[in-house]
Amino acid sequence: MPRRNYDGTFRGQRPKKTTPRHLLARWVETEVVRLKRLGMDFPRIAEQVTLIGRGGAKPITELPPELCFPPDYKITKQGCHKAYRLALRREPALAVDEHRQLDTERCEEMLLSLQPGLRRGDPRSVEAGVKVLSHKAKLLGLESPKRVEMTGSEGGPLTIEMFRQLCAAAEKETEVKEGSS
């Protein structure tokens, strides 16, 4: 195990300093996650963060005193999405489960708000309710697996013998590839 020098470095390597760009990136990640939790989409988040960077809006996350934005600061929706993904990767897996739970709670709130229209039989409310339930099922992994049917030559059913032949051919192909590498 390498020993530390008296100044805190490891064998002559200098400790990494937090650059202004790094500080800005971490703040953007935090702000994007908070705005996403509020239910904003990435284009609106990009607008909001750009406004904050130019001094036209107030942030949700406190700005560090040493953080300064470039005068023409702008972030795209793709940049916000990338920051969101990086922030989620940094967080432990429990945080991802928390996001899933948060989205599930949002779905339940949406269904609750659709109840008056559903009771009246309003077709738009029913359609929206079905979409919310479909999204919730995808979110929780409750969708039933899709049925896949393989066909043999000439579009007929795949017999067991044909399936065995296909498996044997695939195994031979794998062996040839592994042998050549």
Please describe the topology of this protein.
Elements lengths: L19 H18 L4 H12 L23 H14 L2 H28 L2 H18 L19 H21 L1
Helix pairs in contact: 1-2, 1-3, 2-3, 4-5
Would you mind describing this structure in some detail?
- With 181 residues, the protein is mostly helical.
- It is built from 6 helices and no strands.
- The chain is flat, with a radius of gyration of 27 Å.
- The protein starts with 19 loop residues before the first helix and ends with a helix.
- The relative contact order is 0.07.
- The mean pLDDT is 83.
What brief labels describe this structure?
181 residues, flat, mainly alpha
What's the short version?
The protein is 61% helix and 0% strand. It has 6 helices and no strands. It is flat.
Average residue-wise pLDDT: 83
The unreliable regions are none
Say what oligomer this is: single chain
Please tell me what the overall shape is.
flat
In total, the number of strands is: 0
Largest sheet: none
Write the H/E string, N to C.
HHHHHH
How many helices in DSSP terms? 6
